[in-house]
Write a structure and sequence with these properties.
By secondary structure, the protein is mostly helical. 38% of the residues are buried. The chain is globular and about 55 Å long. A two-stranded antiparallel ribbon has the order 1-2. It is built from 13 helices and two strands; from the N terminus they run E-E-H-H-H-H-H-H-H-H-H-H-H-H-H.
Length: 291
């Protein structure tokens, strides 16, 4: 069901809603209730994804990588930190340890020193050296392209595995990170709180072929507009489809000031982003140590 939210009460319109009073701005938003059928939910969810695809035609994984090994390591390192910080750190790591064989035989103290800026560097060092050893010993130094093999690697869970499968091997997967969890619950796609249940519920709303790009679209939107603490509702292009409209700043001018990355005119998270992102006006992130 869609109902209008006016900044001022106006006269009733023929369809039972209300026309915006003179000088006010009306945003028609989805009213969240249990009357929404599964079919209606599927239609709304897919429309949101189509809208996001138009807003972020350049959506991409925001970790720099050149091969599956770099992607799996970078994704493990991204826990409890930003992709930007990982991208500023991994050039030195991969310059010194370009292959699983190199990292498997590395001195942990030297790796720790490189990874220190990412936080939890001792645990992350143990994970990336451990997964490198597993790649060498169990997979001939190659990153496997199957979910059941990837999750056996130290530090690799389903989220990391689907990032690798979707972006290094072209195999569909849903990446349920903190942004994804927050947004799909705000949109009432699911009430689930556990990642595996969220993955199953959302996956059932979309064809499998959409899963990887859906993940990028949702995560891009969560990082740029639909923030955790103060979503920029007044600058959100999909506000009419959002049951949670109004949780954040609804004034358009104030909301614009909350936009992040290229939507706010600022650099993105990758030092070496895709050309499509640059063509759309995106700016590369600065290298580690720059102002």
């Amino acid at each position: 069901m869609v109902v209008p939210r006016d900044s001022a009460v106006g006269e009733q319109s023929p369809d039972g809603g209300r026309k915006a009073a003179k000088g006010s701005k009306r945003v028609a938003v989805v009213k969240s209730d249990k009357s929404e059928s599964h079919t209606a939910l599927v239609r709304r969810a897919r429309r949101i994804n189509r809208e996001l695809a138009e807003i972020y035609p350049y959506a991409h994984p925001e970790l720099d990588f050149e091969n599956p090994f770099q992607l799996v390591v970078a994704t493990v390192l991204s826990a409890q930190t930003t992709d930007l910080r990982v991208n500023q750190t991994t050039p030195a790591l991969f310059a010194k340890y370009p292959t699983p064989e190199d990292l498997a035989g590395a001195d942990p103290e030297q790796v720790e020193e490189i990874l220190r800026p990412t936080g939890f560097f001792r645990a992350k060092t143990k994970s990336v050296i451990g997964l490198s050893k597993a790649l060498v010993e169990d997979f001939g130094g190659e990153v496997p392209g199957r979910l059941e093999d990837l999750v056996k690697l130290p530090g690799v869970g389903r989220k990391t595995a689907f990032v690798v499968l979707g972006n290094a091997f072209g195999r569909p997967g849903i990446t349920v990170d903190t942004h994804f969890q927050r947004l799909v619950r705000r949109w009432k796609w699911t009430e689930a709180t556990e990642p595996d249940k969220i993955e199953a519920a959302v996956g059932a709303l979309f064809p499998k072929s959409d899963w990887t790009m859906l993940s990028h679209h949702v995560i891009f939107h969560g990082r740029r507009i639909c923030h955790a603490r103060k979503p920029a509702c007044g600058a959100c292009p999909i506000a009419p489809l959002c049951p949670a409209y109004g949780e954040g700043e609804t004034d358009p001018e104030k909301a614009k000031k909350l936009l992040k990355y290229e939507k706010g005119g600022y650099p993105g998270q990758r030092l070496n982003p895709p050309q499509a992102y640059l063509d759309a006006g995106g700016k590369p992130a600065p290298p580690l140590g720059s102002a």
